[in-house]
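BUG-426 | component: ligand-complex export | severity: low

The export step for 5'-deoxyadenosine jobs runs without errors, but we want the raw record kept on the ticket for reference. Input record follows.
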Amino acid sequence: MCYAIPGRVVAFEGNRAVIDYFGERRRAINEIKNLSVGDYAYAQGGFVIAKVPEEEARQTLDAWKELFFELKKRDDSFSRAPEEAKLEKFVRKAENGNIARKEILSILKTPDRDLNNLFSTANSLRKESLENACCVHGIIEFSNHCRNDCFYCGLRKSNARMSRYRMTVEEIANAAEHAVNDLGFRALVLQSGEDPFYTPQILEETISKIRERCDALLFMSVGTRSRETYERMYNAGARGILLRFETSNRRLYSSLHHGRKADFDERLSLIRHCKEIGYIVATGFMIGLPGQTLEDLADDILLTRELRADMWSFGPFIQHPQTPLASCSPPDLNLALKVIAASRFADRNAKILVTTALETLHRDGKRKGLLAGANSLMINVTPRRYRENYTIYPGRPDRDKEIERNISETVELLHSIGRAPTDLGV
Ligand code: 5AD
């Protein structure tokens, strides 16, 4: 977004460029043919987005330099690991990348009195591995039609009280162009319900149109579509997918999806296939589903790791009044934060998103999540007249906010805790 720092290419390793940001180096997949050592570039989500003319890059870097080191200092002050004997063993295991299920479970069972120590230890692991880098992506919710009837989701097809919309290809491309060229986002997620109206051909057309008009990493979040559809979207220029497995508990999955056990396997194999295609994969689960146990959540974390998620996307379940789960309660904020912390222990290099659901659960959820081990965010850039009808769950704090206001509040928050918009790399 407008919050982005260019870096200088210092080397190439196969298809990856090594990019330097004020002395910190990150790797990003490069597909720009004429990018050379010495060039400046924007990278986002571990992907080189665009070459930046030297003069422009120098000006941006000059403007950032002082602030960048100030932010790092601020981040340091927020992420000192407490001397905590109980957590030492876990920290060592996290550093060696071999934390196991029983340890994850024990993190999820941390009693309230020990939570501050847990969260600041997870936050310090984040800082040791990835410094103060933070990705901010934009999300465009382009259709709220859905052919599915998932028990938890407000977009479910039997919710007759939802006012449905579909954005045209031109509207989606205009929203994307505005987000990238006017607001400065470098990575966008295009999300919808599972809406077959958007045929593979329309999806291709949308992606190509956006790619023609602006430089951005495009994530597609369109649910379980055929492998061929995902291949075609990749060939049209999409490079990321956001597709959650929702829960690793097969029985729970099928109970929330009309008993269709095969759907779970289909979804997992699709996520794996997308990884093979070469997509950057964002995946994850919901926290606090009715009947879900802490053991399930430990398995969810392990499955996200096993799937080699490039980005971890999970959030609390929030009940929607027009669904069969209307009377179920959302989880406690601390449980959601413990899942963030445990995920950081499970993969110290993870890009962990703070999702809107966490902010819906608690108004300070974004900040608390970032201080419990998370390091990525999304900002809603859906045109306002549509946004209010994308009610997966009610009460979203970004529902009526002007995009510009949402951006400036997020930038303020990131500054206040010392995070900088350098790329997290791959
Ligand atoms: N509460 C929280 N998250 C939800 N999702 C769907 N319904 C809900 C809900 N009631 C999540 C699912 C889906 C993503 C787009 O939104 O994980 O994959």
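Assignee comment: Attached the raw record above. The longest strand covers residues 135-143.
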